[in-house]
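Folding follows sequence. Below is one example:
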Amino acid sequence: MTSDLVYLAKTDTTVGFLSSNAKKLNSIKKRAENKPLITACSTLMQIKSISRVQKRYKKLIRNSKKTTFILPRKTISFRLVANDKWHSRFVEKFGCLYTTSANESGHSYDEKFAFEHSDIIVNNPNGLNEDKASKMLILQKRKLKKI
């Protein structure tokens, strides 16, 4: 498996593109090349390898389900997918992957668009269907801020 490819998979929340190549994902979605993406990781150790996590937030992150965390400077966001069996197993093979919804920026999910722009389609027993979006929290120094 090559992480530079674009995978279409059912994520913990929706149908998404996953890759280690952020520029490629932004290009597919037709959005600014420097726009940050969510990083999906299967363990807290992987998250700690890309950014420092305050001690007081570690338990919250570990126990979270379908939650995206944004760090104060808003340049790094991540989601721990350990609680989702299928998605976690997939991400685990690569370490961490950039993830984004499988649609053109500003548009809703279109299966044709998603299939045309992915290199590999990853099937799981739940199929490729959209669920409710993840919660988003900004991890500020002194408090959490819900978006």
